[in-house]
């Protein structure tokens, strides 16, 4: 009986999560491109060919990260950052995004397949949100799962990258595993509610049978 109750509780509660950021890099010497989709296609093609000095990793925080610290290479880079996050009903509305990048041959920011920003210029962030190396944009988000993508190319001198979000008129927050973005999956699904109700029914029936079996 105790095990059934624990199963019901775990099914309803679900895991507590925040946003999830993945960094993937590959070798590329493409040069500046003419639109955001061209950057996406070039980066995805580069990532199809694994080479030493490049790789894929999940980030605890999207703050001051680079390729050479993780995989070794400092040049001829194709970058793809993916940030998955969930928007609850309470957080639905206007969101802002910004990413400090080092894309020497330009890059693009996309949200759910829509282009938020793009530049074929030399984008070098250098730690300043007021500088020229920032890709940014805003969107009205509905409840559910959303994905932010950063695609870019860099020939030399791999620098640092950071990305942040803002909800409504709130301050910017760095994407991380403690950024407070809770998953929609933490809200009970109908199947989980049904399981919980069934478990409660079993408990109630057991209590009635126990009372009836007690001597009067």
Automatic annotation (TrEMBL):
Residues 186-210 form the Ice-binding protein C-terminal domain. InterPro entries: Ice-binding_C. Pfam families: PEP-CTERM. Keywords: Signal. Residues 1-18 form the signal peptide. NCBIfam families: PEP_CTERM, PEP_CTERM_CCXG. This is CCXG family PEP-CTERM protein. It comes from Pseudoduganella chitinolytica. The lineage of its organism: Bacteria, Pseudomonadati, Pseudomonadota, Betaproteobacteria, Burkholderiales.
